[in-house]
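Reminder to self: tokens first, then the designed residues, so the page reads top to bottom the way the pipeline ran.
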């Protein structure tokens, strides 16, 4: 009996030693993976508490931050290292030794090198975020072996080559984002119906050929910036294939000579007729167009002063209601010039003040602090121009503020200015035009008949993006007296080609400096968050929305606050919606001192987002 008990003891000891040895191997592999990612920061693993002597999934252990575990399996499930300044390479062989790894977040870093083929060893990988890095090379064909993959975000890198055709065979893939790379070739036939709003984007690459069938509902913005692409949803149709001519029997030498000369004579004769006909048509068209041009010039001369569409072009002057006009002549006498901050990605031409004023412009909207125009340059590129009223402070102060904001605006959720102009007559700020419009218009559209609803995961992603961008700017601009946004609202949140939010018009309005200068921005974000949760865009006074939400919550009818389209949608959790609502209400607290900082807000929202993602992964694995 003693002998049997001793054997059992040795067996159990060996069994648990093997488990501990395997776990120890995973820990060491993850530490080596982190060291490869941060070659210039050897102490990073120590600061994060990644220590081979402690178990990352032991709830009582100290350290191992930036990852989460599956409670039931006691195994690493999520690694989150986004925005940490990592500038090394990805060692997928080490990373994928964690067998239960499902989510990897490495976005917003400076990671170099390629995406290794060994990434396919992460057999349970569901979400891979690598956007906004410096990765190069072609995408490994082994990506197609990730049968559990749900979302792949490789946007804003330098990947090249063709997409692996087998990627389209991953039936559960519901997010594929590769915009702003150098990928080429054709687009495989994905299961496009799997992709929600903003979760498929191949824009601004070098793809060519017809867009596969089934992509009509994706939206043209997801395919724009690829000159060789054609077919729906893009406006340019594909050219029909030329019919192949059937081979004809070889003629005899004499017959061939006779046909050859006969065909040549006929071609010369018909060419003469065609040339004469074209000349007559051209002359007739010239006469007609000349008459129409004369009539149009008379109409323009009569109505030029009242046409909002030509407000940037009339007499080389910008006129917007009560705002003073800006003319090139008077600007030249003052010595004012257009200050170009960055090269525009939409126009190859060098931006010049005179060309900007001569370009056709369309008034998009007026606000308390100025007007916004869509300006179309000579090469067809579209820009957005903000014409400020007298709210931007003195000229010198405005210039300093614009330069400081430009130096800080290095976050993917902040839209940087392309150029600005400042003189005693007024101020202009130029941005890249965002085709998908503002968050305000999207929310208004989703409430109209025929408008598309945006699901819970999209709204959560938008809220997290805005919070992270705003927190980043507050941190970057805090050294010499905080520059806040000053006018944060849903109409100033623009959606880029990937349907990600971009904070526009940052720092254009002079806001209070010193302690508490960030609190108006926190309040503005809180209102945006309430708009996202309730589906009720602010009409006039944002305080009315905050009062209404508070009154409903006080009556303990909290569930009535939420937009019905997200409550009834797939993947929505009432518990997490309530958590987000509490974040929003904290932001709109009447007492500015009681409001959290944007850094705290971003952390709270990301915690909800991770919990939401973890819940989704658990439900999919059951």
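Designed residues (622 positions):
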């Amino acid at each position: 009996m003693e002998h049997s008990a001793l054997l059992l003891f040795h067996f159990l000891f060996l069994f648990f030693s093997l488990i501990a040895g395997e776990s120890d191997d995973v820990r060491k592999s993850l530490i080596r993976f982190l060291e490869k990612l941060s070659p210039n920061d050897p102490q990073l693993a120590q600061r994060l508490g990644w220590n081979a002597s402690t178990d990352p999934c032991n709830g009582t252990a100290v350290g191992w931050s930036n990852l989460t575990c599956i409670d039931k399996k006691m195994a690493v499930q999520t690694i989150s290292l986004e925005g940490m300044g990592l500038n090394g390479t990805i060692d997928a062989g080490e990373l994928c030794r964690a067998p239960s790894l499902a989510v990897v977040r490495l976005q917003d870093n400076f990671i170099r090198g390629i995406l290794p083929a060994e990434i396919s060893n992460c057999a349970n990988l569901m979400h891979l975020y690598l956007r906004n890095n410096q990765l190069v090379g072609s995408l490994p064909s082994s990506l197609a072996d990730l049968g559990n993959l749900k979302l792949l975000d490789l946007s804003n890198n330098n990947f090249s080559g063709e997409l692996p055709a087998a990627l389209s065979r991953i039936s559960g893939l519901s997010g594929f984002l590769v915009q702003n790379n150098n990928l080429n070739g054709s687009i495989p036939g994905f299961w496009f119906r799997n992709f929600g709003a903003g979760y498929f984007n191949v824009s601004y690459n070098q793809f060519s050929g017809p867009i596969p069938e089934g992509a009509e509902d994706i939206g043209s913005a997801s395919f724009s910036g690829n000159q060789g692409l054609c077919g729906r949803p893009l406006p340019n149709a594909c050219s029909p294939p030329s019919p192949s001519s059937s081979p004809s029997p070889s003629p005899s030498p004499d017959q061939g000579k006779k046909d050859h000369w006969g065909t040549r004579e006929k071609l010369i004769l018909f060419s003469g007729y065609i040339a004469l006909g074209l000349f007559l048509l051209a002359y007739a068209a010239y006469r007609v167009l000349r008459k129409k041009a004369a009539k149009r010039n008379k109409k323009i001369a009569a109505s030029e002063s009242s046409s909002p569409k030509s407000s940037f072009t009339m007499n080389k002057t910008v006129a917007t209601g009560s705002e003073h006009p800006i003319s090139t002549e008077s600007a030249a006498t003052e010595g004012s010039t257009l200050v170009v901050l960055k090269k525009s990605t939409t126009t190859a031409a060098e931006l010049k003040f005179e060309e900007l004023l001569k370009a056709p412009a369309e008034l998009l909207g007026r606000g308390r602090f100025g007007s916004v125009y869509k300006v179309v340059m000579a090469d067809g590129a579209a820009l957005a121009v903000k014409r400020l009223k007298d709210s931007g402070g003195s000229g010198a102060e405005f210039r300093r503020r614009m330069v400081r904001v430009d130096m800080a605006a290095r976050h993917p959720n902040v839209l940087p200015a392309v150029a600005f102009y400042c003189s005693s007559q007024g101020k202009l700020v130029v941005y890249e035009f965002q085709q998908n419009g503002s968050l305000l218009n999207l929310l208004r559209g989703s409430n109209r008949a025929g408008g598309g609803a945006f699901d819970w995961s999209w709204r959560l992603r938008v809220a997290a993006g805005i919070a992270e961008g705003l927190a980043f700017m507050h941190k970057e601009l805090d050294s010499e007296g905080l520059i806040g946004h000053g006018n944060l609202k849903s109409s100033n949140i623009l959606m880029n080609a990937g349907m990600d939010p971009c904070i526009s018009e940052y720092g254009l309005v002079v806001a209070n400096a010193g302690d508490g200068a960030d609190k108006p921005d926190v309040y503005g974000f809180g209102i945006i968050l309430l708009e996202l949760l309730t589906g009720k865009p602010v009409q006039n006074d944002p305080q009315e929305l905050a009062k209404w939400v508070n009154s409903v919550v006080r009556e303990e009818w909290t569930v009535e606050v939420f937009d019905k389209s997200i409550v009834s949608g797939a993947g929505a959790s009432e518990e997490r919606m309530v958590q987000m609502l509490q974040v929003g209400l904290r932001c709109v607290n009447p007492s500015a001192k009681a409001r959290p900082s944007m850094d705290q807000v971003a952390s709270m929202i990301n915690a909800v987002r991770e919990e939401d993602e973890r819940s989704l992964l658990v439900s999919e694995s059951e």
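The chain has three domains: 19-230, 310-432, 452-621.
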